[in-house]
Design goal:
CATH class of the largest domain in chain A: Mainly Beta
CATH class of chain C: Mainly Alpha
Largest sheet of chain A: 4 strands, mixed
Order of helices and strands of chain C: HHHHHHEHEEHHHHEHHH
Number of strands of chain A: 8
Helix content of chain C: 55-70%
Strand content of chain A: 25-35%
Helix content of chain A: 10-25%
CATH architecture of chain C: Orthogonal Bundle
Number of helices of chain A: 2
CATH topology of chain C: ABC transporter involved in vitamin B12 uptake, BtuC
Largest interface: B-C, 43 and 46 residues
Structural class of chain A: alpha+beta
CATH topology of the largest domain in chain A: Immunoglobulin-like
Order of helices and strands of chain A: HEEEEEEEHE
Strand content of chain C: under 5%
Number of helices of chain C: 14
Strand order of the largest sheet of chain A: 4-1-7-8
Radius of gyration of chain A: 26 Å
Number of domains of chain C: 1
Oligomer: heterotrimer
Strand order of the largest sheet of chain C: 1-4
CATH architecture of the largest domain in chain A: Sandwich
Chains: A alpha+beta, B mainly alpha, C mainly alpha
Structural class of chain C: mainly alpha
Distance between the termini of chain C: 37 Å
Distance between the termini of chain A: 50 Å
Chain lengths: ~160, ~375, ~350
């Protein structure tokens, strides 16, 4: 049933709808950026080109104020983070030297390598893309369906293959 | 004399609730489950399922019966989650992202569902049920064949080994219980996901407010009598479609809330039982095909899910078989929907018969 | 041109589309390596297997009870019959007719109760039928575990209690009908004469019945309830009769299906069978309140043809198994199309 409305209302409706679309797009982008997760690989190895060496003593590394992990020379640890900017705190276990560095993660990449020697020396960028040798697919675990209506060995309510 | 009659009417009005409470109470002792365990399960399941059940209220209000087509909304939410996992969006933001992506899809789905249901007036429930199967086929086509092939998926961990199509089980590690743990309160020995309940409360407020708006009133009129509403100038078809659209979008959100609590998603099956659980819950709570209140939702979710927690164990202990408990659970579930529908239809016929008789002045009607 | 258009409108667009689609599949078959004679043989087999289910839809549609989504109830009666037949070790034709014989009394009782229930809920039969069917299947699931069956081929190995999910009828009544007077041409073509004869006979019986006084009364109740009432026909009784017949056909149907397929499928298998039968009769041109034998034949043929040809041809062509998804979309799409037609009010 088309109702006859005057031009003013039509324009107003159009504007409101446009505004809604803009707000929607904005929200999508906002949640995307705020929620984007990354896997950080914290690395305390000598650099390949030999310019910097690993921090000799063990270090306590904490990201965003979380519980610190021990990173010895040659070590690599992995942490999952959410969002684009983070603070890395490196504390020398023996000397009590504590450095804090801010890092910004590129939006597009998933797994990133953070090099401790680079952070300490203040070389930017200390973050680079991590290219894995092999992406091991996760094992297909049987879904533990505690709340599904069917029990594990009952046939679920789906079309059965016809002979 | 009249006291008996009112007691009888109380029983017939609330038959399903009473039967349920009795069966549940009877099943608790043989199940061997402790009360704290049951209470905690109840809290968890309330948080997980209530939103979905609330999504059923508006279509009932608009006279369209039980919206079995809510599965379409659930599928939309799942697509949103697949994309969120694909781009590794975590936490509550991930849930919001999934919900946002799912919204335009569910609006479109709701529109299609509403239009189809409008062409099947009088047979909405059956049509909605079959429509859910139909769209399930489309969903499977998109998720099993198009994703990864035509629609690029950048996260190889969620793709099947053949190179296209999403895996059967998606680990929702990134968003697992994000909403629940946002604000978790410990009261005594119980953990309460306050944030989730706040969201649910928000929906309740929305429903109450909506019923007071002009659109809400229109829906009520349409639900009451389509011909009268049409005569009063209400765009009946359009109002019905809007009711379904809102219900579908809510189902979209509800399914995301459900899945974030579960922690993983059975990509091709998670939505199969969604409408069925929700419909069973609202019917158990005392709603009918034509009338549903928010109290029905909460009562129904508690009753249904406590029964589902307790009966399998009881069946196992009583009959020595876990399978029997499972089947018994499903039997009760389907049985209660059938029972409620029967009671409702029977009462409706009795009312029309009574009305007809009063019109005729009580003379004996024709052959049955 | 007009006559063609008229024919198409009468026949229904979906039917025409499906017919040509099927034809296209047949034409494409040899090009993708699918043997036509094997396909036709397969199709005839499945056609016979499922015919009675589709036939079972007719009585209830004609009497105004709508589409029988609760066919599971009849199937359960048939399952009881066939499990009893295997339990008693009946083989060959005795096994088959024994199963049918055991099943029919159950089917009559179940149908009678089910019919009484449906009479109380005129107007919402289809949804309720669905859930009564589901609840019934679940109840039987418990029963299959609990009933005292003892035959070693039927029960679980260890405990010796409770029936297996799938029970073979090899050695009992497997293929007894199919093989009867079967015509073999070459390696891959078998014409299941016995089964088709039996099914044709049943169809003939139903056709005959619909012409008897009771049959016409039944149709009157569905198409013109006021006239029926005025003629003194009890609408409730006729509806119950239609439900009983439908249930009995379902029971016999599953026994025919089992002898052809080779297995008795218990537990949750009956849940999906009604939907296939509903889709078939709707494809055949029936509506929610009118169905004829022609609808049954065309519908069963087209639907089973679709189910046979689509997987084999498309899978061979695309080298992937897309058949299940196509089946879901097509069969449910047909049902929705039929449900959204405007119907003449028949209440």
């Amino acid at each position: 049933m088309k109702q006859i409305v005057d031009k003013k209302t039509m324009v107003r409706r159009l504007l409101i709808r446009l505004a809604l679309v803009v707000v929607y797009a904005g929200l999508v982008m906002l949640t995307f950026v705020l929620g984007k997760g990354h896997s950080l690989i914290i690395d305390n190895k000598d650099l390949d080109d030999g310019t910097l060496t690993a921090a000799m003593d063990g270090n306590l590394v904490s990201i965003d104020g979380r519980e610190a992990s021990e990173v010895y020379p040659g070590d690599r640890i992995m942490e999952a983070v959410k969002g684009q900017t983070h603070t890395v705190a490196i504390e020398d276990m023996s000397g009590g030297n504590r450095i804090e560095r801010r890092i910004t993660l590129p939006l597009g990449e998933d797994t990133l390598l953070v090099s401790i020697p680079k952070l300490i020396a203040g070389v930017t960028p200390a973050v680079e893309v991590f290219v894995p040798l092999n992406v091991a697919p996760p094992s297909e675990s049987e879904s533990e369906s505690k709340n599904e209506f069917t029990s594990p060995d009952a046939v679920p309510l789906e079309p059965l293959p016809t002979p | 004399m009249s006291g008996n009659k009112t007691l009888g009417r109380f029983f017939s009005e609330n038959a399903v609730v009473i039967i349920f409470v009795l069966i549940t109470l009877a099943a608790i002792p043989p199940s061997g489950l402790s009360i704290p365990y049951i209470v905690q399960e109840m809290i968890t399941r309330l948080g997980r399922n209530t939103f979905l059940v609330l999504a059923l209220i508006l279509p009932i209000y608009a006279g369209m019966g039980l919206n079995f087509g809510m599965t379409l909304g659930a599928m939309s939410g799942q697509i949103g989650l697949i994309l969120a996992i694909n781009w590794n969006i975590t936490g509550v933001e991930g849930l919001a992202f999934a919900a946002l992506i799912g919204t335009p899809i569910s609006v479109m789905m709701g529109y299609i569902a509403g239009a189809v249901l409008n062409r099947a007036k009088g047979r909405e429930m059956v049509t909605g049920y079959i429509l859910a199967f139909f769209i399930n086929g489309v969903y499977q086509f998109v998720v099993l064949y198009m994703m990864g092939a035509i629609f690029p998926i950048r996260n190889p961990a969620i793709v099947l080994s053949r190179g296209y199509g999403i895996r059967n089980t998606l680990n929702l590690q990134g968003v697992r219980q994000s909403l629940d743990t946002l604000f978790m309160l410990k009261v005594g020995p119980y953990l309460i996901p306050v944030a989730t309940f706040i969201v649910i409360a928000g929906l309740c407020v929305f429903v109450v407010w909506f019923k007071k708006t002009k659109l809400g009133q229109d829906m009520r009129a349409v639900g009451h009598d389509m011909a009268v509403a049409q005569a009063a100038g209400i765009p009946v078809d359009r109002t019905r479609i809007i009711a379904i659209i809102i219900s579908t979008v809510l189902a979209n959100f509800g399914q995301i809330i459900f899945l974030q609590n579960m922690g993983n998603m059975a990509t091709y099956n998670a939505h199969d039982q969604t409408s069925f659980f929700a419909v069973a819950a609202i019917l158990v709570g005392g709603a009918s095909v034509k009338k549903a209140a928010i109290s029905n939702v909460f009562i129904g979710v508690i009753l249904l899910h406590v029964l589902f927690v307790v009966t399998p164990r009881a069946g196992q202990n009583l009959f020595g078989s876990a399978m029997i408990g499972e089947y018994f659970r499903q039997f009760i579930g389907y049985g209660v929907i059938a029972l409620t529908l029967v009671l409702y239809a029977w009462k409706a016929r009795q009312n029309t018969a009574r009305a007809r008789e009063s019109l005729r002045g009580g003379t004996a009607g024709g052959a049955k | 041109m007009d006559k063609i258009k008229q024919f198409v409108t009468d026949f229904g667009w979906p039917r025409v589309i499906i017919f040509f689609f099927l034809l296209a599949l047949f034409i494409a078959a040899p090009f993708v390596g699918v043997r036509i004679d094997a396909s036709i043989s397969d199709m005839l087999n499945r056609f016979g297997q499922n015919m009675l289910f589709v036939l079972a839809m007719v009585p209830m549609i004609q009497s105004g009870c709508g589409l029988n989504f609760g066919l599971s109830i009849g199937i359960i009666a048939g399952l009881i019959g066939s499990t009893m037949s295997v339990q008693f070790g009946l083989t060959g034709f005795l096994g088959f007719f024994g199963a049918v014989g055991f099943a029919i009394p159950f089917a009559i009782i179940f149908g009678w109760l089910y019919g009484m229930l449906l009479n109380k809920v005129k107007g919402e039969e289809m949804t309720i039928a669905m859930y009564v069917g589901f609840a019934g299947v679940m109840f039987m699931c418990i029963m299959w575990l609990v009933l005292p069956y003892t035959a070693p081929t039927m029960v679980w190995g260890y405990a010796g209690k409770g029936l297996r999910t799938t029970i073979t009828v090899e050695g009992f009544f497997r293929q007894v009908l199919n093989e009867f007077l079967a015509i073999r041409i070459g390696d891959s073509f078998v014409f299941p004469t016995g089964m088709l004869l039996f099914v044709a006979f049943c169809t003939f019986l139903v056709w005959l019945f619909m012409r008897t006084k009771t049959g016409t009364a039944l149709t009157a109740v569905g198409s013109n309830p006021d006239y029926a009432r005025a003629s003194g026909i009890s609408s409730d009784r006729m509806r119950t009769v239609s439900v009983i017949i439908s249930t009995v056909l379902g029971a016999v149907g599953i026994v025919v299906y089992q002898q052809s397929y080779g297995f008795i499928q218990l537990y949750t298998a009956p849940l999906q069978m009604p939907f296939a039968a509903v889709a078939a009769i709707l494809i055949g041109g029936a509506s929610v309140n009118k169905a004829s034998m022609v609808n049954v034949l065309i519908g069963a043929f087209l639907f089973q043809g679709l189910l046979t040809m689509t997987p084999s041809v498309i899978n061979s062509a695309l080298k992937t198994d897309i058949s299940e998804v196509i089946r879901i979309i097509v069969s449910n799409g047909i049902i929705i199309y039929a449900l959204t037609r405007k119907m003449k009010v028949a209440k």
